[in-house]
Amino acid sequence: MQTKRIIFTEVGKAALADKELSAPADGQVLIETAYSAISAGTERGMLMDLPNTTYQGHYPKVVGYSGAGVVRAVGRNVTTVVPGDRVLYIWGDHARNNVLEEKNVMKIPNEQLHLKHAAFAFIANFASAGIRKTRLELGESAVVFGMGILGTFAVMLCRAAGAFPVIAADIDEKRRSLALSIGADYAFDPSHPDFKTQVKSVTGGKGPRVAIEISGQSVALKQALECLAPFGRVSLVGCTRVSDTPIDFYQLVHRRGITIVGAHTSARPVQESYPGYWTERDECMAVMNLMANGRIDVSKILSAVYSPRDAEAVYAALAENKNFPVGALFDWGRL
Fold it and tell me: Which of 63, 99, 168, 289 could make an S-S bridge to 187, C-beta 3.0–4.6 Å?
C-alpha cells in the first residue's frame, strides 16, 4: 500500500512525500495515524542538522516518533492489540500509516483519553523518566529549565509527584505564564540578574533539591548547578547542541555533593522496570493513565493542530524558531 509521510529534504526544508508500505509481517502492526505530535526541540535540531541529532549530515530525514491512531491489521503472533484498538505508537513516523513492531505499540488504557492527547504520551515520557531518575520525594522543591513541550510536561509531572514548590525557568514571558497556568508555583526569567536570588528566596534560601534541565543550553546547566541545594540532583533531559559555557565542576558539583544524571531515552532498561528506571512501555502507560484520570491536563498545552499538507510551512516556521507553539499536532484526518 502507498501512504504519505513527512520528510526533511534539506536544511530547513520539509515535504509531504509518498512511501510504500508492506503488509505487517510476523510481530508487526499496521496503524492508521489519527494524530502525530511535534517534538519541536528534537525536530528543529534534525531540520537544521544541528550537532547531537539523528541522521546528522544525511538527507532525506524521516521525522516524528510519538503518535496515536487505530490498528488496521496485525501480523502473526501479535497478542497485545487487535484491529480496531486505539493505540499509542512510539518510534513511528509523521505518516498516515505506520507498520511497527508490536513492542512499539500500546493500547490506550482508557476510552476517555482522546487520541489527540494520547499522541503526546511518548514525548511526555521523556520528562517523566528524567524526573524519576532524580528520585524526587514528596515535598521536595524542583526547578524546570525550559518551557517547551517537554518542560511543560515536566512541570505538571513534578506537581503530580508532590514537589513543592515547582519552579519554572524560561526567558519567554508567555511561556512563564503558561507554566503558572499548568501548575508551577513560581516562574522566573533565567536571564534576569537576580534569577539565582529569586529561586533561592522561594526555597528557604537553600535552593531547590531537584533540577530538570530541558532547555539543552549549557548555560542552563550552569545556572541549575548554581541554584541547587547541597546534595541536590540535576537530570539532563534536554539534548545540548553546543557546549559553550564553562562550568567549574569542582566548586559547583564536587564540593557540594551534587548528582548529575543523564536522562536520554537510550539510558533506560529494555525489558524490566526497577525503581528510578522504567522501560519506555511502562513509562508511557503511566503517563497515559495520568492523562486519562485528569492528573495531567494536555488540553492546557495543546495550542496548534495542522494538516500534514501544511508541513512545508509548519517546518519553515519551526526553522525560524520564533513563537512556535508549545503543543502542536498533525491531524492526519485532514489529508
Answer: 168
